[in-house]
């Protein structure tokens, strides 16, 4: 019944958008190729590897895409070194996608597979994009379904499974020749094994295996606005962006994310992207750093604790070669600093609230053609 | 656990407005539609690369993954996820 209500609500929203203006054709994504090296270093975890993406259109109606992403992880995080031993593993993720223009709509279908030694996830995504109101409004709807297999080192086969359903709805609106705004709502439902077979919780000082609920329902609403703030007569374009996301779920977590961005052309061929991001959340109802009683559900997963993080980041891109109307090649480098603080997750080595700093970096060589 | 009511109410109000537009159009009801006020030739600034959140697609996947495995929140980022067991 709830699903029927959701479908009716979405149909009403799209109906309203279409009825309020003429329909405008959407465009296929531009042909491009990207290759990236990425690195995350923080809290005893190093994750790095290459990634590639290729997107090519054909017959003016179809765009095919493929990507491959590798995460080589060396994990000596605090919960690993205090309750187990350091380990290394690799995650490989591949994705194939198809974008198809049907009349005035763009349909996107993609499938992805993520494989680790003890975890496999397969996901199917379907998205619909429609420009309406003379191209001033873009409405998107999306659905994903994923099926995971959960394993445990030392145990042959799989020990459990999990399923995930995602529903997305977004509206982007051109406000003025300089400003746009958007709203995105996403609902995610999970069913199955949602914890970690390795993670331990503490009950009255004694370590026990964590036990998370087998269902979770979450929603996130993100509001964004982006504007061109270039002064009249200035040569180098500048833009400002503000994003806010509110998150809530049935595990009792409420999260707030605020991100501000400032981009500007530094010189012909040079682009600077900069941002600062702040995030905070309260803990899940079954989270405890050291529970006074054994309860049915118990976790000490610090991702579910009361925590916040903040950090600035910047990216610089340089156009190596450009032939207008044919192709261009760009090289970019990004660095982001993140400072994580946990209010109710104790570093058992020091007895103090845990915190750490992380660096996120990548370099990308990209071409559009 | 109860869901967040104000957003549900907002969705229903917007949906009702949309349905009302459709009904008004279908019944030939006299109303003056709002014309698009930003013409295609006025959108040159909006199409400039400086207006994009990120020039490339792959860095967004890395960033989304970094946050998803370290924060309790998820979704509405515009990046389609592929699952992982790295929580």
Instruction: Provide mean pLDDT of chain A, rounded.
Output: 92
How far do the termini of chain A sit from each other? 47 Å
Q: Trace the largest sheet of chain A across and list its strands.
A: 1-2-3-4-5-6-7-8-9-12-13-14-15-16-17-18
- In DSSP terms (H or I, runs of 4 or more residues), the helix count of chain B works out at 2
- Decide which structural class fits the backbone of chain A: mainly beta
Order of helices and strands of chain B: HH
Low-confidence residue ranges of chain A: 1-24
CATH homologous superfamily designation of chain A:
membrane protein fhac: a member of the omp85/tpsb transporter family
Structural class of chain B: mainly alpha
Instruction: Please mark out the parts of chain B with pLDDT under 50 across 5 or more consecutive residues, or reply none.
Output: none
Largest interface: A-B, 116 and 65 residues
Architecture overview:
The complex is a heterodimer of chains A (369) and B (87). Chain A has 369 residues and is mostly beta strands. Chain A has one domain: Beta Barrel (Porin). Chain A is built from 2 helices and 18 strands. In chain A, strands 1-2-3-4-5-6-7-8-9-12-13-14-15-16-17-18 form a 16-stranded antiparallel beta barrel. A two-stranded antiparallel sheet of chain A has the order 10-11. Chain A is globular. Chain A starts with a helix and ends with a strand. By secondary structure, chain B is an all-alpha fold. Chain B is 38% helix and 0% strand. Classes of the chains: A mainly beta (369), B mainly alpha (87). At the A-B interface, helix 1, strand 1, strand 3, strand 4 and strand 5 of A face helix 1 and helix 2 of B.
